[in-house]
Amino acid sequence: MTAVRALVRDELALPVDPRVTAMAAAIAARHGDAARAVLFYGSCLRTTELDGQMLDFYLIVSEYRAAYPARWMRVANRLLPPNVFPFAHHGLASKYAVLSEADLQALCGPEAATVSVWARFAQPSRLVWRSDDAAAERVVGSVARAGPTAMALALPMVAPAERGDPLAVWRAAFSQTYRAELRAERDDRSGSIVDADPERYRRFGAAILPGLVGAGNEARWRRLRRNGKSLTVLRLMKASATFAGGIDYLAWKINRHAGTKIAIRPWQRRHPLLGALVLLPRLLRGGAVR
């Protein structure tokens, strides 16, 4: 674990576009003393393209009661993490998800009931703002759990002859996690994550695989898939209260990844929760999300 932690610490410290750092600081400022760290991740990190894109951040807070003045926001974040908010800064658009330090630690580990957090942080991310060194070290420790969790759960799903190949295990991990959420991306998307930087995944795999004990099986993955898809729908419902324009973002993301041409009608913008719930069955039937 020491070697994995060192790799994570070095990767989190890699530089990013100064506009990303500025946006992260502005996000943290919205939540005052509750803000502990901001992580940047996702497709904009992989491609380095920012203009015209939606940047992805996680804001890590000390605790939810310190992060929000409204009680219902605190309760929503605790019961169904994370809360997600849109944010714009100096011509760039983003969304950020809010997790407490304790939830980040738990959701990056094998005890998590869904894949959504550890699957994100098994991939590259950057620590682009932190309140102090202690906050940074706590983030490093949490993120360092994500890769071992992904590989341990994927290992039993790999043919025995390939279990020593870190890339085979990583591909299996991302293939399984993509099946465990409602996704708009095309079928080959999970493999392209590894192919975009195979050396990175070899390096992390070499640190994780020795002595790794498999922790997954088909029954476990069935539970993760059931939990993940159900929670995706619940989070979509919650986002209608926290994410202005959320239904337009949903359509944009699906059109971008699935090649569809979904158009949102005015009534769906007026009633985003109802509009999203009406839209979802059609998307599932048509295969735009899986």
UniProtKB/TrEMBL annotation:
It comes from the Bacteria. This is Phosphatidate cytidylyltransferase.
